[in-house]
Task: inverse folding
């Protein structure tokens, strides 16, 4: 994305369903947010992640005069992490249980409710949850853990329940 001078948001979701957002403008990293931390602190925490999925959403991103990242954080983001991963001895993952097939309408209803609370990263979080969980209720509960407050989680669960009830 940097080499292509892309602008937009790189959404990252860890195996533990923690999300990270990296904001790019013209190929320049403007901001990194991960687990309630920003920039260098977020990159340091991100460096502890063994594996994750990512998705890039192009679009306009407000430009900052200068990135708030230190040189070492910028170097890690631009390829240093590959050396870190090669140096780690990661355990062989155990195969996950086969995901249960869920009606496309159910998936879409949950994802639409999630978009209202989680924004554009909702699609990736939903995909991850549906790959590893068995029931729509489990998926909704897992997605709710990504919200900022218990009240927001309660509202999301209620909205998802209403959306699912409307399908019946």
Result:
């Amino acid at each position: 994305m940097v080499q292509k001078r892309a602008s937009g948001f790189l959404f990252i979701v860890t195996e533990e369903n923690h999300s990270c957002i990296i904001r790019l403008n013209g190929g320049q990293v403007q901001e990194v947010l991960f687990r309630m931390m920003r920039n260098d602190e977020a990159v340091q925490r991100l460096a502890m992640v063994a594996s994750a999925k990512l998705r890039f959403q192009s679009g306009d991103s407000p430009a900052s005069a200068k990135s708030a990242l230190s040189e070492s954080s910028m170097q890690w983001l631009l390829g240093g992490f590959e050396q870190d991963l090669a140096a780690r001895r990661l355990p062989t993952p155990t195969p996950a249980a086969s995901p249960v097939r869920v009606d496309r309408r159910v998936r879409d209803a949950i994802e639409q409710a999630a978009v209202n609370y989680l924004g554009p990263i909702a699609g990736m979080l939903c995909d991850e949850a549906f790959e590893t969980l068995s029931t729509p209720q489990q998926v909704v509960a897992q997605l709710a853990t990504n919200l900022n407050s218990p009240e927001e989680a309660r509202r999301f669960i209620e909205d998802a329940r209403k959306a699912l009830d409307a399908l019946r």
User: Anything to note?
Assistant: The beta strands are 8-14, 19-25, 28-34, 37-38, 52-58. The helical segments are 39-46, 71-87, 104-118, 122-132, 136-144, 150-165. The two ends are 43 Å apart (CA to CA).
